[in-house]
């Protein structure tokens, strides 16, 4: 399997990832990272981190953040470790650790794996998003990264709720059609949901959904103004989306 070395945030940090197998990180990860807007010393868990793009995006932009990359695949966890050893990432490597564990572990097994209760101020996630009825890729590693299993959001959000401090923030990116499952999984764990649909161009249907929520909140759900990636013509990002994608600004909660 051939590796690639990819620059993010316009060269602020780099990511080592497989060229032809597994999930390759891109804009989704950077938009997810932008949801963490917190200048305090905070602990952040990136669940299902892959090679670590989203978590590293947070660490690169927020110098007081400590990030734990949680990844089940031994191969992708190894990519994350090797990424942290890159000279280009020396400025953030001492604030990032890799935990090789299944996100859905429960109780003592989860704690033993390195995910203690009531510990993280932020939990971010980019869960597998393909419905089982979608056309499956022949790449086994990519299929594992992309294929949604039954009750996936319930399992992931249960873990997020357990490892997060009261009042901590959940942030995730998903397909818009997953909104019902996300709301159901939040249940009484999380409230104050803020939802933002991402549209490719004006007049086109949404392709992604940004979600933030607060552990223990009872505030009402809020739909925010949509984000539009491109103008009507051309492929350049709009200025604000380009700033989010490149770590120049965050997307804070209202």
Automatic annotation (TrEMBL):
Biological process (GO) annotations?
Answer: methylation
Gene3D superfamilies found in the cross-reference section: Vaccinia Virus protein VP39 (3.40.50.150)
Q: Does the keyword Ion transport apply?
A: no
Q: Identify a single GO molecular function assigned to this protein.
A: S-adenosylmethionine-dependent methyltransferase activity
Q: What is this protein called?
A: Methyltransferase
**Taxonomic path:** Bacteria, Pseudomonadati, Pseudomonadota, Alphaproteobacteria, Hyphomicrobiales
Tell me which UniProt keywords the record has, alphabetically: Methyltransferase, S-adenosyl-L-methionine, Transferase
User: Cross-referenced Pfam families, in alphabetical order?
Assistant: MTS (PF05175)
Species of the source: Rhizobium straminoryzae
Heme in keyword set: no
Q: Which residues form the Methyltransferase small domain?
A: 32-137
Which InterPro entries does the record associate with it? DNA_methylase_N6_adenine_CS (IPR002052), SAM-dependent_MTases_sf (IPR029063), Small_mtfrase_dom (IPR007848), tRNA_Adenine-N(6)_MTase (IPR050210)
